[in-house]
Amino acid sequence: MSRPKQDVAGGPSAESFASFLAWLDPDPERAGERYKDIQQRLTRLFDYRGCERPEELADETITRVMRQVPDLAESYQGDPIRYFYGVARNVVRQHFTARSRDHARGLLSPAAAPHSVEEVERRHACLDRCLETALTPEERHLILEYYRSERRGGHIARRGGLARDAEISSNTLRKRTERIRRRLQDCLMRCLDTERDDEG
Q1: Could you tell me if 67 and 16 are in contact, meaning their C-beta atoms sit under 8 angstroms apart?
Q2: What is the largest CA-CA distance in the chain?
Q3: Rg (CA), the chain
Q4: Interval 92-120: pLDDT, tens
């Protein structure tokens, strides 16, 4: 049984890991089995939700819970897995927010590159808003996966797979994503103009 991998904030100490296992079950052997079961269930959850690196996200969820065990041990009632699922929901939301921003950078016009941290944050906020409000869920999935394939390489094969999944030709896929891109850019420009007017 291995502890969650170390993250940027530092991995759990041996003492905190031992306290975590004791919270799962007073019996060390059962606690170890419970830990592995939770890790597997979280990994399946993240994989089912379409997250990248589901094992790493499972470890991140466990690490977050582990840090809260000193406060949880005395007060938490019920099956610990419910608490893990609650934390996992936040991890999923943060994962997709970060992924949407990363994948959607290809949607922005290079000529309109931001020149300050404030402008970057403003663009991200507007882009998130437009992805949610200007597109249907199907359109949002299509455009993000289309540009995601470009960033990850092998984009011709990946986009061919997208076209097959949508039961359209590659040419129709290209035209459809270009229309979606133009709508997003129009929405983004309107949002940015509104933000600047509000500041003015």
Answers
A1: yes
A2: 63
A3: 21
A4: 878 776 665 555 555 555 444 444 556 66
